[in-house]
Design a protein that fits this description.
By secondary structure, the chain is α/β, with parallel strands linked by helices. The chain has a domain of 249 residues. It is 37% helix and 14% strand. The protein has 13 helices and nine strands. The strands form three sheets. The chain has a five-stranded parallel sheet, sandwiched between helices. Strands 1-2 form a two-stranded antiparallel ribbon. Strands 5-6 form a two-stranded antiparallel sheet. Strand 7, helix 11 and strand 8 form a beta-alpha-beta unit. Helix 1 packs antiparallel against helix 2 and helix 10 crosses helix 11. The longest helix is centred in the N-terminal third of the chain and has 19 residues. The radius of gyration is 20 Å and the shape is globular.
């Protein structure tokens, strides 16, 4: 029997209560103290935002946040039997992200390809004080069950890189922000930190990869009109342009820009985090460019400005269908997307073939 997903009003009620219910359940006592207070306050804020149909909201010190990402952070369990109660998926069978991720990993493994899953943590996980300054909580207190979720994936053979660890360590040094204030994406330094962490994992997983490129880089400032400003309600003043520092990368020998290599053994797959500063806002400074510097060779890329959950895997299937030998060239796939997709993916988490 096909069950219907809850209505938006029921969803608000469900996730408002979910934190307290989860804490009472066995195995979820990790959510406590400041983390519990933060989630409760955030759930209340999200309810208010949804009543106003607010897509984005302002925090403090000029920081802006995406409502959907705050909603994701206000949840506790979002996988297994709990997924259907909180997912934005149009069908219950697509609500739980774990089966689709595990299936994708198995299909790649059957072809001799390794998968590295790289969810990009929510901005409010690194900067909770910019959305709820009254709640004294550090990032490590806020998402204890993300660790449980990632461990569940690891227990089923999926290698997960948790970037929150790198971001929080950098943030503790009180240096420049790893996320943009007025945009959903990471800053230039956030992109570099991600590339460094990913490259270290890739080298450990596949040590025989080539390392022959010679690239030069330079830090430059650029001005962006962050995507969150245009999503604010009419009654909230719009921010001006934001200055972002990015690391621009070119070939040392020719000075030419980095171009994705279709023959590369590494494929970068994901949402707009794989494209920002390479395809929009700037060129030569995106995750692909930073990986070229850190790895010594250029990866291939399949990116989308939409969801990094199901649509990007459809793009992968189409690419493989067009070029039957495409996947034979790959040794590792880096699947990078916003962590909020675990609940907010509009098309859910469908199981899809990677090739014909």
């Amino acid at each position: 029997m096909n069950r219907k997903l809850p209505t938006r009003g029921v969803l608000r009620f469900v996730y408002a209560l979910q934190l307290s219910l989860a804490i009472q359940a066995s195995g979820q006592s990790q959510v406590q103290g400041a983390g519990r207070e933060f989630r409760s306050a955030l759930a209340a804020k999200v309810q208010s935002l949804e009543k106003e149909n607010a897509v984005a909201c302002s925090g403090v010190d000029g920081w802006l946040f995406l409502s959907a990402e705050l909603r994701f952070m206000s949840l506790v369990r979002f996988w297994g039997a709990d997924a259907v109660n909180v997912s934005r998926s149009p069908k219950p069978e697509w609500a739980d992200p774990i089966p689709a991720i595990v299936d994708f990993n198995k299909q790649l493994k059957d072809r001799g390809i390794q998968l590295l899953l790289v969810p990009v943590p929510a901005k409010a996980e690194t900067y909770p004080d910019k959305i709820l300054p009254e709640v004294r909580a550090s990032g490590s207190d806020l998402t204890p069950l993300m660790g449980s979720f990632y461990d569940q994936l690891r227990s089923q053979g999926v290698d997960v890189l948790d970037l929150a660890l790198s971001f929080l360590a950098y943030r503790s040094k009180e240096q420049e922000a790893v996320f943009c204030k007025t945009d959903t994406h990471w800053s230039g330094i956030g992109c570099v930190l991600a590339a460094q962490a990913i490259a270290a994992k890739i080298r450990a997983k596949v040590p025989e990869l080539p390392s022959k490129g010679d690239y030069t880089s330079d830090w430059v400032n650029l001005s962006i009109d962050g995507d969150l400003g245009g999503l604010l309600s009419a009654k909230i003043p719009k921010p001006g342009p934001e200055s972002v520092r990015v690391r621009s990368v070119v070939s040392k020998a020719t000075g030419s820009a980095i171009i994705p290599d279709p023959n590369s053994p590494v494929l970068l797959l994901g949402d707009s985090f794989t494209l920002v500063y390479h395809d929009f806002y700037a060129t030569n400074a995106g995750l692909l460019d930073q990986l070229a510097v850190e790895l010594g060779f250029v990866p291939d890329v399949i990116g989308t400005r939409g969801s990094g959950a199901t649509p990007v895997r459809i793009s992968l299937f189409r690419r493989a269908a067009k070029d039957p030998g495409f996947l034979d060239k790959k040794k590792i796939v880096i699947w990078c997307f916003a962590a909020r997709e675990f609940t907010e993916a509009a098309q859910g988490w469908q199981k899809l073939p990677i090739a014909k």
